[in-house]
Inverse folding.
């Protein structure tokens, strides 16, 4: 029996996922690392498991079989890559070799052994990390807004990480999560949903043996930097509030992430060094054979981008799903042609008039 | 820079139309450059478009604030401009208003074209030259609104000031002057600068007063010499033009950073520095990057191998010496003399620095002793050891007794060394630095000379890490932890260090390396952290100090306490700490601040004494410290200095030294001599200087200085140990 781990992404994020896999491999050479790929390779690129730090790859098609195309059509890229996480959990837990399972977002990198979490799974079935583990100061309104209120909006636990034991409760959680994500993994803050994450507010209500891990060394990110300080000890171990840094969540690589980091890291130079390392590691893991912004499921078969409102309408209307079971396909009597003839959603993709619940 | 580029790339990646770009600009595809990178680096400056639906040229024209800020226009549009309702392209159908504006602009341009001096305009305003826009067009659209002048005989700002009717009309003042103003006899140049100093309305006066209170005029004039040349008041210049041009009003405030982080200010016409002082500060907005200079350096830091690539020389070396010619060049007319190979990393006679002075000193002593002093340094400089996979046989530049005699491949030098064995008295190999060298070949050179040993100086910690001052990512002292630690694996030098250490170990195994350390503290750190087995380890300080009683005591010194900074005024040398101390104490008559060195020194409240230390004037700094009457020298190091010549120069000049705990031999020397103070952090430094302890220390120093003189003697470098039996301890 082994510990299994997985991440989920499209090929555009393979560079980040590779950084995750190599850092995780360094800490845990014996783990079985899976890549859950909700995408198909672009023309010039071939994914070769032999040269990767992943042990196995499983695609959305492997997990969702014939309904894949139709089901994914109702999701944008973020929704899609998170919606498959529940099914990936049940799939991997069904492997008799899997004793414990850990999920990481692709934009995470692991810096010290995860042994404590794995040991926790002897006593607990589910381990979750909250966005914040300490309240912000009353006077720091900006931090409260950026961190705590955002947590209330988007979910109190960060689902960039979840660990589960392959026991009854762990399996029950995975099955429930898969059920919900299959139908409701949408970015719809207006109705209280945020993809796979907001659902997990309910985990402590529905399941036993849930561990809320509040060690500051886990899931360090801009949303909790206001309460965490990084330094190195004399042996060169990275510490967060004097605990070893287990993994950092490099959310929003780019200007937006930089602004949030500055806002809360202040003069904690070690955090900026970490980002410097990550930026270069991702660049080194990138390949020009994957076109920028590539996502196979992002376009109709004629190459045109599928607008988000089209996805929303399709997933809301059973009649359309029945009439066009193969919605990506363009051509005569296709959904695409129907859209062009009956709506302005293709000619005016910015139009967002459709808001069905 | 690289980081900014990456940010731009990340911002536009989703929307950049690669296919469009490659089709529109075939030269990019032909050159094999990544189109996004091309656009971010050069393309937008050449007005190329990133997608069918975005016009770079239109956006920059329509948004002068963006053009002046120097940010990537497409990134600006995506991150900010679009949400602000800015347009990506000129509307396809011109509105009446737009048509009127266009015709008006064409008319204005035709009227002023003759009197407009484009050459003057681009010379005076460097940003215009950089933007590559048509100067006349720029003046008519934006330039006059920004107070720029169309030629050297017309002052836009003055004309608007002197003729409020023109200002109220909101029209191009130069156009007005040519059309009617000139014939009406209106003045277009001020007789003096008085008009600029008197603000017109109380709000502007209050704004100016607040800005002036926190404005560092000396800093401004030193950084923007054109302001001094124009003879304009610096505060007025900043308020009228400087802020828009991205100038900084003081070293503590970055105009560009503030505008970048507070996009709500862009285009609002509010002066960013005034905004910060009047409200931003209270709202918790940052005046500069909160990470300070170290993060600013980190942003510009490139990965090590990219650095190597950039350093790589484009041309192949020419006229290499080999065979008999090489032997003859080395030997000269010194048949039978001793040959000293000195391995360094640069042309020590042209580059100034402590290591270079040491090599010069050793060279002088060797030549005096009748030997041949042959310095080898790599023709291809590198920020790490050479890699055999890139060049198995690097070219060395040969400096013989101070004169460059040519270049040769290391293998040819090894062969020549073998051939020389019978024609010289003996050979010594002294390693001052291995940057850019192949240690494997250095071992071969030593063997070819028939020797088994060499001497290696610990000028820094290159034998422990390619980051030779032990700075993680060049910004934080790391103490050289294990190569598998987080600190190393997350460091710019981590990957290289793993191989580096293995190669150093093989070198130390192959050769008997006698390690020479300029200080005890360095020897200890090296022994603790290197894991290398030296044949011997000996401490040989570069300078010795001796205090002796004066025949006649000096008169009592009642001048203000003089605090000095020696050498390069760079942040990693502690210059920022010194500058902050100056700013907080400059107003007090108790203190006087001096800077001794050869760089431009952009700070007010400090006297500058120009000092150049060379082999011919080795005591220049010591003399300057003495003449300037420096009491305390601030030496705030960011790494454990192995010797710190400037610390010794401070003592030799009659001063004491203030330093921080990680400064290596600086702190060790201060502690050993009990002359100075080691202070935990900047707050402690400030408290010490302003408190009773500081005053007491200066009192003690002045008493001692009155009674005793300091004598210094330079070391004999390697000759200190070669002339006698070895007494170095086994390492």
């Amino acid at each position: 029996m082994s510990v299994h781990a997985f991440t989920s992404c499209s090929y555009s994020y393979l560079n980040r996922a590779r950084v995750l896999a190599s850092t995780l491999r360094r800490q845990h050479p014996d783990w079985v690392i899976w890549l859950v790929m909700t995408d198909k390779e672009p023309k010039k690129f071939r994914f070769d498991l032999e040269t990767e730090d992943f042990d196995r790859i499983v695609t959305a098609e492997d997990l969702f079989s014939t309904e894949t195309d139709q089901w994914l059509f109702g999701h944008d890229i973020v929704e899609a890559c998170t919606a498959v996480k529940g099914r990936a959990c049940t799939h991997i837990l069904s492997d008799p070799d899997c004793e414990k399972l850990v999920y990481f977002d692709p934009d995470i990198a692991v810096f010290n052994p995860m042994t404590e979490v794995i040991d926790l799974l002897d006593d607990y079935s589910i381990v979750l990390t909250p966005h914040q583990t300490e309240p912000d100061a009353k006077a720091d309104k900006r931090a409260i807004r950026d961190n705590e209120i955002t947590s209330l909006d988007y979910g109190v636990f960060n689902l960039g990480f979840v660990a589960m034991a392959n026991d009854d409760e762990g399996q029950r959680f995975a099955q429930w999560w898969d059920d919900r994500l299959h139908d409701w993994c949408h970015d719809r803050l207006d109705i209280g949903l945020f993809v796979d994450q907001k659902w997990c507010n309910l985990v402590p209500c529905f399941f036993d043996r849930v561990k809320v891990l509040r060690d500051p060394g886990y899931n360090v990110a801009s949303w909790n930097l206001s309460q965490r300080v990084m330094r190195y000890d004399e042996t060169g171990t990275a510490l967060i509030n004097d605990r070893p840094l287990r993994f950092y969540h490099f959310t929003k690589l780019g200007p937006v992430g930089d602004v949030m980091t500055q806002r809360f890291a202040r003069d904690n130079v070690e955090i900026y060094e970490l980002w410097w390392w990550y930026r270069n590691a991702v660049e080194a893991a990138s390949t020009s054979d994957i076109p920028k912004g590539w996502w196979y499921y992002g376009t109709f078969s004629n190459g045109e981008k599928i607008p988000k409102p089209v996805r929303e309408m399709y997933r809301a209307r059973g009649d359309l799903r029945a009439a066009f079971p193969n919605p990506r396909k363009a051509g005569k009597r296709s959904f695409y042609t129907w859209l062009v003839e009956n709506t302005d959603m293709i000619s005016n993709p910015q139009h967002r008039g459709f808001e069905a619940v | 820079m690289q980081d900014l580029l990456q940010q731009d790339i990340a911002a536009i990646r989703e929307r950049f139309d690669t296919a469009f770009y490659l089709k529109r600009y075939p030269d990019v595809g032909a050159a094999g450059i990544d189109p996004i990178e091309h656009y971010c680096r050069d393309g937008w400056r050449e007005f190329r478009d990133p997608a069918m639906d975005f016009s770079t040229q239109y956006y920059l024209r329509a948004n002068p604030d963006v053009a002046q800020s120097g940010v990537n226009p497409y990134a600006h549009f995506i991150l900010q401009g679009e949400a602000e309702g800015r347009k990506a392209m000129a509307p396809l159908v011109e509105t009446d208003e737009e048509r009127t504006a266009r015709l008006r602009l064409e008319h204005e341009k035709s009227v002023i074209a003759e009197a407009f001096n484009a050459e003057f305009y681009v010379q005076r305003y460097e940003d215009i030259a950089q933007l590559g826009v048509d100067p006349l067009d720029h003046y008519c659209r934006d330039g006059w609104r920004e107070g720029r002048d169309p030629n050297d005989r017309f002052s836009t700002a003055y004309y608007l000031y002197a003729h409020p009717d023109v200002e109220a009309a909101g029209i191009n003042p130069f156009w007005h002057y040519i059309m009617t103003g000139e014939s009406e006899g209106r003045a277009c140049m001020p007789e003096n600068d008085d008009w600029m100093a008197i603000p017109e309305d109380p709000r502007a006066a209050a704004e100016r007063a607040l800005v002036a209170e926190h404005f560092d005029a000396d800093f401004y004039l030193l950084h923007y010499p054109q302001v001094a040349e124009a003879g304009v008041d610096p505060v007025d210049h900043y308020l009228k033009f400087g802020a828009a041009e991205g100038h900084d009003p003081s070293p503590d405030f970055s105009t560009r950073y503030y505008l970048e982080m507070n996009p709500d200010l862009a285009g609002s016409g509010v002066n960013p520095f005034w905004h910060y002082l009047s409200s931003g500060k209270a709202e918790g907005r940052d005046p500069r990057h909160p990470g300070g200079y170290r993060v600013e350096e980190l942003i510009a830091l490139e990965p090590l191998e990219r650095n190597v690539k950039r350093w790589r020389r484009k041309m192949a070396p020419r006229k290499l010496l080999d065979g008999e010619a090489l032997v003859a060049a080395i030997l000269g007319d010194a048949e039978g003399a001793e040959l000293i190979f000195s391995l360094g990393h640069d042309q020590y006679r042209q580059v100034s620095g402590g290591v270079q002075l040491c090599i010069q000193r050793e060279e002088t002593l060797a030549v005096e002793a009748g030997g041949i002093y042959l310095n080898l340094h790599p023709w291809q400089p590198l920020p790490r050891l050479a890699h055999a996979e890139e060049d198995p046989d690097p070219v060395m530049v040969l400096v013989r007794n101070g004169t460059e005699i040519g270049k040769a491949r290391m293998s040819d030098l090894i062969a020549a060394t073998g051939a020389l064995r019978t024609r010289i008295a003996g050979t010594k190999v002294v390693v001052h630095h291995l940057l850019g060298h192949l240690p494997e070949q250095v071992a071969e050179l030593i063997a070819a000379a028939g020797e088994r040993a060499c001497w290696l100086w610990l000028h820094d910690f290159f034998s422990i890490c390619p980051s030779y001052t032990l700075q993680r990512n060049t910004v934080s002292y790391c103490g050289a932890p294990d190569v598998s630690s987080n600190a190393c694996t997350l460091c710019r030098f981590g990957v290289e260090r793993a191989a580096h250490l293995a190669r150093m170990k093989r070198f130390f195994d192959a050769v008997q390396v006698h390690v020479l350390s300029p200080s005890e503290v360095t020897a200890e750190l090296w022994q603790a952290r290197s894991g290398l087995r030296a044949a011997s380890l000996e401490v040989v300080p570069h300078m010795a100090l001796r205090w002796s009683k004066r025949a006649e005591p000096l008169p009592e010194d009642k001048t203000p306490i003089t605090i000095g900074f020696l050498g390069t005024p760079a942040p990693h040398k502690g210059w920022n700490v010194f500058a902050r101390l100056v700013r907080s104490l400059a107003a007090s008559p108790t203190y006087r601040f001096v800077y001794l060195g050869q760089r431009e020194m952009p700070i007010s409240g400090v006297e500058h004494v120009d000092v150049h230390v060379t082999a011919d004037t080795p005591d220049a700094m010591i003399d300057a410290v003495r003449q300037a009457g420096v009491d305390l020298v601030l030496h705030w190091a960011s790494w454990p200095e192995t010797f710190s010549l400037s610390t010794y120069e401070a003592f030799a000049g009659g001063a004491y030294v203030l330093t921080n705990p990680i400064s290596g031999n600086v702190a060790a020397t201060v502690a050993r001599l009990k002359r100075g103070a080691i202070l935990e952090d900047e707050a402690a430094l400030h408290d010490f200087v302003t408190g009773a302890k500081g005053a007491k220390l200066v009192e003690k120093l002045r008493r001692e200085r009155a009674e005793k003189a300091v004598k210094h003697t330079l070391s004999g470098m390697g000759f200190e140990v070669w002339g006698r039996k070895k007494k170095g301890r086994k390492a």
In short: Residues 315-463+512-542 of chain B form one domain. The CA atoms of residues 159 and 684 of chain B lie 53 Å apart.
